[in-house]
Amino acid sequence: MKALPLFRILLVALGLIGFCRSRLLAAEPAVPPVRLDERIILVAPTETTREDREIILWQGRVKSALAAEKPSCGSFERLGWAYVAKARRTLDAGYYKLAEKTADAMDGRFGVTDEALLLRGSVDHNLHRFVEAETVARLLVARRGLAFDYALLSDALMEQGKLAESVAACQKMMALKPGVDAYSRAANLRWLTGDLPGAIVAMEAAVGAGSPLDATNTAWTLTRLSGYYLQAGRQEDALRVAESAERLASDYPPALLAQGRAFLALGRPSAAVVPLERAERLNPLPEYQWWLADALRAGGDEVAATRMEADIRARGEAADPRTYSLFLATRHENTADSIRLATAELSIRGDVLTQDALSWAREANGDHAGAAAAMQHALSAGTQDARIFLHAGEIALSSGNEASARKYFDEARKYAGTLTPSEKGLLDSRLRRQATTPTLQPG
């Protein structure tokens, strides 16, 4: 039985005021200066990880300052970022909600400060409220223009598909504070604009600039580097850095996923199942479950693969609409739902990956013209991505443009190590037909 994520618990707790009151008043009595709406951020964690100890430390500092009737904005701020660090480590969105509640408390006690704005903007970004994050970032840039303000602005713009503006903001950040945060953002933007070698160089620089004291952030950069190596056909290097990320931050779901993907690219599905099962237990999102289902099937366990796919269908829409849309379109199931989910996601984020999801959903639903139109947007940035090229090839094939289909399938082959086994199976079938027949027929 999987434990409920903190996010779900908080949705109930924050929505039922009576419950919050009785639950929190039953806890260890808070000092009188603590306001009722602050008590939820001062409930001590029950775990003992490094991130939890950091939360407890700053909760204590906040309580001590309040008891002395000398509330400190800085202590609240550090508590908020401790919650953000816990969210990044666990991928549990509930901790972002606690960070947001901390920003609310800062507003209530100290007015609207730049520190609370940056914390709130980070929460907005991580909860996919990208327009709100951009608004906060632009305000901060206008008020003070620090490196982290430009980082937030670059992130929010990138997610909305505003790549030129995102690059400009990232360059401002790089000029102000070169380092792991700037290098990793530059790497992602280089990848999105089709410069895989440049992305690798920048992410290697990010890894080199990382600190063991910030294990989660360094593990994240290693995980991203693993993906770039995989795309470049460097499967052994991809596995090596993914394992390094896992040693640095044990049970970190993205690192476990990266290991599983590398094992699959190396043709070792049974080895891939082990880290993928751990990743899925820790983070049961559609992306993790899809990779695990494909690994199980590739290893011959059809029963477990089918069971995992049933779980994707049961929870995918609520957990990750974009990936679930891609899954449905790839499986040719509930294609109307696939379009609905991708369209809704596009209203939030306008990046090339969401455009690709919409084009693929339209293709699965038989709307070849609509699929082609959305695919032009997905291809517009020059992103060198096997999934986008595979989808573009299928769309071109359905439209009777065999020459374009051949070109896209050949491009997808260059980066095929990043595809799920089921996607790679589709690509392989197209490549075999391309090699044995003068023309391709959609199937």
- At the first level of CATH, the class of the domain at 320-443 is Mainly Alpha
Fourth-level CATH superfamily of the domain at 320-443:
Tetratricopeptide repeat domain
Number of β-strand runs: 0
* Global structural class: mainly alpha
- What would the principal axes of the Cα set say about the shape? globular
Distance between the termini: 40 Å
Total number of helices = 24
Rounded to an integer in angstroms, the radius of gyration calculated over CA atoms is: 23 Å
Poorly predicted sequence stretches spanning 5 or more consecutive residues = 14-32
Q: Spell the H/E element sequence.
A: HHHHHHHHHHHHHHHHHHHHHHHH
Beta strand %: under 5%
Break the fold down into its secondary structure elements and pairings.
Layout: H1 6-15, H2 17-25, H3 50-67, H4 73-90, H5 94-110, H6 114-126, H7 130-143, H8 147-159, H9 163-176, H10 180-192, H11 196-209, H12 215-231, H13 235-248, H14 253-265, H15 269-282, H16 286-298, H17 302-319, H18 321-331, H19 335-346, H20 352-364, H21 368-379, H22 386-398, H23 402-414, H24 421-436
Helix pairs in contact: 1-5, 3-4, 4-5, 4-6, 5-6, 6-7, 6-8, 7-8, 8-9, 8-10, 9-10, 10-11, 11-12, 12-13, 12-14, 13-14, 14-15, 14-16, 15-16, 16-17, 17-18, 18-19, 18-20, 19-20, 20-21, 20-22, 21-22, 22-23, 23-24
